[in-house]
Give the backbone structure.
Amino acid sequence: MSSSSGPPSTKSNPLQFSFPLLLLQSLQIPNPLFLVSQATVLRSRRMASTIASSLSFKLGVPLRPHPPLPHTSASLGFTTFRRNYAVSSSAFANENREYVIVGGGNAAGYAARTFVENGMADGRLAIVSKEAHAPYERPALTKAYLFPLHKKPARLPGFHTCVGSGGERQTPDWYKEKGIEMFYEDPVTNIDIEKQTLTTDSGKLLKYGSLIIATGCTASRLPEKIGGNLPGVHYIRDVADADALISSLEKAQKVVIVGGGYIGMEVAAAATGWKLDTTIIFPENHLMPRLFTPSLARRYEEFYKENGVKFLKGNSLKNIEAGSNGRVTRVKLEDGSSIEADTVIVGIGAKPAVGPFERVGLDSSVGGIQVDGLFRTSVPGIFAVGDVAAFPLKMYNRIARVEHVDHARRSAQHCIKALLTAQTHTYDYLPSFYSRVFEYEGSPRKIWWQFYGDNVGETVEVGNFDPKIATFWIDSGKLKGVLVESGSPEEFQLLPKLARSQPIVDKAKLQNASSVEEALAIVGSSL
């Protein structure tokens, strides 16, 4: 954690330390101080913690699980003893109370898989979500899910987690088979940290031993007073949102997309498959300003234009107007101009879905729930992963909150491994972003770029976009970041190695490279 925030609090009642030791003695388990191996120490303390947790619920003693050793978790290492949250079972809606995940996106799905891989899911894990579906690979919603029916769109169950990383497809039946208790369409509205309970929108009371918050983000919305909630105005965060947009696209003629970032680029690419009159509006001077250089953005803008997409750059939306039927008919801009529209898609960013978990501790700089390198919050037994977590970005020595599927997957897996095993190393994430668009059947060309590292310093661009282009970010002579469009599998595999090692690069030699392949060979030789 940053020096300003400090590590998560470990203050607790002295009983949390003395009670497990007494239990060890009463059960004739050797004192951990005299055990030979560190692994045995960890297992013994986990066992004591677990027994203490079990008895605290059976006897009504208000104890939390024993605080973990530094950089370890207080989770059970054996299968002999299991936490028991069966007291007053009628009071709680969930039978599986040892671990509870709140959320239904990528992070929740990959966390569930990690629980299963460690043999700690069956009868122990519950997932509560506002989603109507089992966790799925959310990026599909702005890509293949939006293709017209005759162009082979993606549909569930095809993209349930964890197919996005080559893993097993975790359908609703998978969760049943693994003994995971699921609560759908019932978001958590309140948490009682002292009692370790959650209340859902339907009024259910859920008990937890360890809580993993994986609530992701919510779409930033336009104010209602300027037409942000009119029929025909769409935001995309879940399957229901995407289904509503598809219903509009089936009848649409003129589509306006507000925002020139990820959502804007991906939805516009999908709209070309419907052969609709499509315009993107954004206040910046070029697409993807947080990542793309002006030169790189121009290449993509030209390709989009070739496919019929129009741009209104450097302009902001003023308001959205409705017709006599109450549905959107026109978008007015700040410069006084207007555009006809029967469908508007808004992609202007997202906000961490903190919801009722503010008390857990928020980060004031990047937003979200503040965690350490093992995704522990300031409250013992509560963790946060994925888009909602503000975590230490070890490589660059700063606190970050990353809204990307790769981080959602990796953070969930790292957190659960640390919780269930003796894993002690902190999360060392390498920022990465990608997009795949124009992949519908009959598209003249598929676009697929990947980026790794940090986009700081000077840039060198190599290639002409036909068929490839690469951009290298160099700071103080070191390679900091690299983006490649339409790379081969081998080239894409090289990128994270380059970004993590940050080799010294001969900038002049790189500028003289005649192709992307030659440029990658130059920087690769510096490893």
